[in-house]
Design goal:
The protein has 227 residues and is an alpha/beta fold. The chain has nine helices and eleven strands.
């Protein structure tokens, strides 16, 4: 069974979501604020986190940043703030998806399953290396100059798509096809450049002058061949 941590301070909505999710195979623990969420994460294993932005005290964006510093659990932001700036900030901080209220609980369930399918995709054997960048496909691990990098599911899949086509320029549309296949994911569609920027912040010695994920003006992105 999937185990989700729902971080939501609206008791009525939280109760409805917990009931719906548990009826559909998602065991759900509720945290009413950021402090409760961090305590829950320290005490138990969760497969996915559902984070509201507008929380009392520590807001959901700050909480997501703190979570990403310690855990690599998939995160879906669930919020009443349907603002593009909030979506971009949420994705930059490491959220894997973003769902605006009001929403149909079935859509939330579908997004949970979609994010988990991506994060639990079968691994491939082998490694890729280019300069100080190493991707271990079997372990789903990325190292830069010997240091492990904590990537989100989208960031990892994007990097793998580039690595498996190293030396070839991939357009944004082609990257979308490789990363998500036929699965609908509007959050990724609207933010591929944001994901590239986030990826560079994590793996590039100087993100303003990329060594690994290079931009080919008017064409797309390129990762140099193995070395």
């Amino acid at each position: 069974m999937i185990h989700a941590l729902l971080i939501e301070d609206d008791r009525k909505l939280a109760s409805l979501l917990v009931e719906f999710l548990e009826q559909n195979g998602v065991a759900t623990t509720l945290a009413m604020d950021g402090a409760q969420a961090l305590n829950a994460l320290a005490a138990a294993h969760f497969d996915i986190l559902l984070v509201d932005i507008m929380l009392p005290g520590m807001d959901g964006l700050t909480l997501t940043k703190k979570i990403r510093e310690r855990w690599q659990i998939p995160v879906i932001m669930v919020t009443a703030r349907d603002d593009d700036a909030d979506k971009i900030v949420g994705l930059e901080l490491g959220a894997d998806d973003y769902l605006a209220k009001p929403f149909n609980p079935r859509e939330l369930l579908a997004r949970i399953r979609a994010v988990l399918r991506r994060s639990q995709a079968p691994t491939e054997e082998g490694r890729f290396s280019s300069g100080g960048l190493i991707i271990d496909f079997g372990a789903r691990e990325v190292l830069v100059d010997g240091k492990r990098q904590a990537l989100t599911t989208h960031e990892y899949e994007l990097l793998c798509a580039l690595a498996k086509n190293a030396g070839r320029v991939l357009s944004r549309d082609r990257l979308l096809d490789l990363v998500k296949g036929t699965e609908a994911d509007d959050a990724f569609d609207r933010s591929i450049d944001v994901h590239v920027s986030r990826l560079r912040q994590k793996i590039e010695p100087d993100p303003r002058h990329p060594r690994y994920v290079k931009t080919v003006r008017g064409a797309g992105y390129l990762l140099p061949r193995e070395s």
